[in-house]
Design a protein that fits this description.
144 residues; Nuclear Transport Factor 2, Chain: A; two-stranded antiparallel sheet
Amino acid sequence: MWLPCASRLFDGQLATDDGLDTAILISLFTDARARADDAIPDGDDPRGWWGDAFTAAGDETGSRLWLLAREKQTTSVLERARSFAREALAWLIEDGVARTVDVTVEAQPGDRLAIGVEITRPTGPARLRFDYIWNRMEGRAYAV
């Protein structure tokens, strides 16, 4: 998996990271192609990233979180969201970027879903935590 370099403004200056934050954002919030047995919420477009046409089977980019856009925030939907996020981030372990990846999800007011990602690097005890808010109705993600 390609790891782009993230850029943000920090005190008016361009700040960069090692790309892990950006890679996680892309993995979680790029629409993965729906599976044959997935119920598609609006119509019959299975979505998916166009670049996956050039990747090996099983090495697709993105997550199926978009399938939950019209779901109520029930315990079973939260568990599906956690499962979809873990599935989208599995490449971090497979490619040796992380030793462990732990995902937590929490329903928040305003049809938002908080997603926490905690990564343990393979070379030591370094643990990194990333927190995101996904507004289900707008389909937008925010890093917090």
